[in-house]
Amino acid sequence: MSSSRPQSRPHTHTRPLTVLTSLFFMWGLITSLNDILIPHLKAMFSLSYVQAMLIQFCFFAAYFLVSVPAGRLLQRLGYQRGIVTGLCIAAVGCLMFGPAESLHSYPLFLGALFVLAAGITLLQVAANPYVTLLGRPETASSRLNLTQAFNSLGATLGPLLGAVLILGAADQAASAAQGGDSVQGPYQALAAALFVLALVMAMFRLPDAREIERAAEQAGPGDLPAGERGRLMAHRHLVLGAVAIFAYVGAEVSIGSFLINLMADPSIAGLDHVQAGKYLALYWGAAMVGRFAGSAIMRHIPASRVLALVAAANVVLIGAAIVLGGPAAMWLLLATGLMNSVMFPTIFSLALEGLGALTSRGSGLLCMAIVGGAIVPLLQALVADHVGLLVSFAVPLVCYVYIAHYGAAGHRPVAVESAEPPPAGAALGAAA
Question: Which residues cross the membrane (predicted)?
């Protein structure tokens, strides 16, 4: 039975993986546009850093609130129809930017971002585990790194397009109120692209991932004792992995959110927002390069070791940026994008290792942990408002310290206790 899987999967699933990669590209582009919206709406509505970070809070809070309902929806609709639904919801969120602009309402902008993120959450809950299933289990981390590289390609193009279409148009406006006009056009174009992609996905024949999951369970690896199937939290490496996802997404989003304002600071680089937005593309572009490289490197070096090394490197880069300041701080912080590259897919695959029948539920828990992108930027904003912008980067530094620990030790699966069937009447005394 095990010999049939390696022979069939690589040939059968190449085209579906190619189609799914387009989803990673699209939500990478959309998510990175938030980094452009933050300085734009901060100036437009005269916001503090904490108020401006509500953009990321509303966007990433959707992951926490929508992940569980999204998982249940996928069970009813199946992966393919769930993906089509997610694309349509995201398109509706993009269209809501029109009324928000017309009414000059910050709360409506936040509502539009939440709806947009709800659609992307549904895509994430479906696509990440789907990619891990479409191929051999031993290459799941490498495969997810490769698809995430195209996510980074979208994230690289997002700031470049946003700098020209949003920040550039706003700089030419006569007033902050007129500056809002620069938002509607780009998001209407995104809505059209999402609807077209939904149509393509509806017409394309994708394999049923639920059947692949059932086949994987029948193959035996990672199967759990009957008494442990419902105990997700008994798997220490999964729980610690969820914390690592929280820390990673929070750190990555937080750095990207503050970089434009930092580069505009006269004591750092003194760039205008359009120039800074273009430099921000280097942050996401470095992540793209690192993911393509990481996909190859982790075929030869253990993924956990790579994770520990790149997280430790970011601790050093951010610490040096805070100490040195000036233009050096800008370049050091931009370089963290390269180290970020392999973190999300590597943590994701390490945390799901050996879960067997609990894999889909574990994936839902990890997607909920993406709420770190809502919480960590707010914490950094509080430090920035009360202590200083450059010093506030100590918040993501702490996140990387934890990720380094997870790569070094926390990722190791701990055997679930009571692997043998307990004797009759002993269930109550077998707490793990």
Answer: 12-30, 50-70, 82-100, 106-127, 148-167, 187-204, 238-264, 276-294, 306-324, 330-352, 364-383, 389-408
